[in-house]
Structure formats: C-alpha cells, structure tokens
Write a structure and sequence with these properties.
Layout (H helix, E strand, L loop, with lengths): L1 H32 L4 H24 L7 H29 L4 H24 L5
Length: 130
C-alpha cells in the first residue's frame, strides 16, 4: 500500500510540474504578448493549468472512472483554490514573519500545498480512502 501511495505521489508531482509550466507559459503569453491585465493573465494560466492537472491526474495518477466528471472536477478545483490560499498564507508567513527570501519561501509554500493537494484529492476528489 505504501509503495502504491509513493507511486501516486510521484505521478502527482510530475503532473504538478507540467501544470507549473502551463501556468507560467500562459500567464507570460497573455500578459506580455497579448497585453492582458496581469491578474487576468494569471487567472487564465491558473485555470488552464488546474484543468489540465485534473485531466492528467484523473487519467494517469488516480485512474478514475467516476462517471460524475463535473462533480469530480469541481472538487479538484475547490481543493486547488484552497491550496492557493494556503500557498499565499505560507508565503506571507515565511516572507513577512520569518524574513526568508521570497523564492525560498515560495518553494516551502509549494511543498506544503503539494502535500495538501495530494492527500485532499485522494480523500475528497478521487475517494481512494474510506
């Protein structure tokens, strides 16, 4: 069971890495090339990356066959948005209170949120526990 969990976590991290590339790539493209507002560009990047992550995790990481795709997708997005809030809080704490470097703090925040997203998606979105 532990080996299966580690395998799923590693796949989840690979999918997350692809999401980072999609997010940054689209945000950059829409902000710098299309000249959209930076927050609109960021929203587009986040939304497309989260949606792509859902599809890849559904098919590759968790092998979900749940016929209620929109319900499952909604749960995934809610967890991602909560993760974004946690990311911001952890980032703020380490930058403002601990006085860590911004990018070091961002790495710490990403670590926290990766673990949060993984376990919440196992329990809540893909219901592999319980």
């Amino acid at each position: 069971m532990f080996e299966l969990l580690i395998n799923k976590f590693l796949k989840f991290c690979v999918v997350g890495g692809s999401g980072v590339l999609i997010d940054f790539g689209l945000t950059y493209t829409f902000k710098e090339k299309v000249k959209l507002n930076k927050y609109v560009a960021n929203t587009i990047g986040f939304t497309v990356a989260a949606s792509t992550n859902y599809i890849l995790n559904r098919v590759w990481t968790f092998h979900s066959h749940n016929p209620h795709v929109m319900t499952e997708y909604s749960k995934f997005i809610i967890i991602a948005l909560l993760g974004l809030g946690i990311n911001t809080l952890v980032l703020w704490f380490f930058v403002s209170k601990v006085k860590f470097n911004f990018y070091m703090s961002k790495l710490i925040a990403i670590g926290f949120v990766t673990v949060w997203n993984f376990f919440m998606n196992i329990i809540f979105t893909f219901a592999l526990v319980g």
